[in-house]
Amino acid sequence: MIKDNPSVVVVGAGAIGGITAALLKKGGYNVTLVAKYREYADKIRSEGIHVTGYRGAFTVTMPAVAKISELTEKADLILLATKAGDMASSAQESLPLLNDGGLVVSMQNGICEYELAKIAGVDKTVGCVVGWGATMTSPGELEMTSAGDFILGYLDRKPDYILEALVNMMSAVVPAQASDNILGHLYAKLIINSCITSPGAVCGLYLGEMLSIPRMRRVFVNVIREAVRVADAMDINIETFGGRLDFYKFIAGSGFLADLRRDLTIRVIGFKYRRLKSSSLQSLERGKPTEITYLNGFIVDNAERLGVEVPVNKKITEMIRLIEKGQLSISIDNFNNQIFN
Questions:
Q1: Is it true that 7-180 and 184-340 share their CATH fold?
Q2: What is 7-180's CATH topology?
Q3: Which of 134, 151, 237, 251 could share a disulfide with 129, CB 3.0–4.6 Å?
Q4: Phi first, then psi: what are they for 339, rounded to 5°?
Q5: CATH code at 184-340
């Protein structure tokens, strides 16, 4: 990463990985994309990736392969833009490609950085919060659906000139910044996914429909309360999400006025993002596994390790795993359980 033009491998050619690779390539960087499927890799090399949305419309061709094992040249930077469940195997396979002094960046939902650090070493691990949205309408047709930023940071040390060089490079995609509390930022996004994406996968409703139901607004609050208790036990200082939602202030206070304040906040969120469909729900509808292990499951696993009670997160995690196995149907009736009262 000390080079002016580092060699970059992006593993994962979905919406986030594909757009990241395309904008880096468009910005003049030396990028190779691992696309998983042979036909898709061939298309990227010959026809390119067509991007639309917040950064405009453009098409970029670039080197692409179907498998990491096809790569022969070393890389200074490996961006892991796979699903969370594929992160570990992708990291293990790509690590031999990393140059001395190179870095591996986790771009997954949830918190995968601890797992990545065990594979790559904490000194090579960079956490990354992806604060923008994208979707793939078809292979090679990617849309940036919302603006946002990247937040990057080390797990074990403050930002240095190498991280600042990485931040500068990633700014070719969206505005990027370095943080000395990357876990606090990652945990903030984990909470949002855990109280919105995961319940949405269980009930099958759009966000506006879900948060119009009083019981689901209570679920929203209780997921956050439990998550904050676990963060306290892990000594994680949770950052304000999106510069607006301070979780500590959100759960502070009791009584009618405090409950009313929380309820109104949730109603505003539900109205503003009323057509939002849970990404985990979309995965289940395609017959794919969710990333529950790295969302509510992360909260539950650490709660059990530290002796913290998290019954709401535990039940949501259990239900999603049953749905993944075909042993439970997606329905709002799943929340007719006394745990959610």
A1: no
A2: Rossmann fold (3.40.50)
A3: 151
A4: -60, -30
A5: 1.10.1040.10
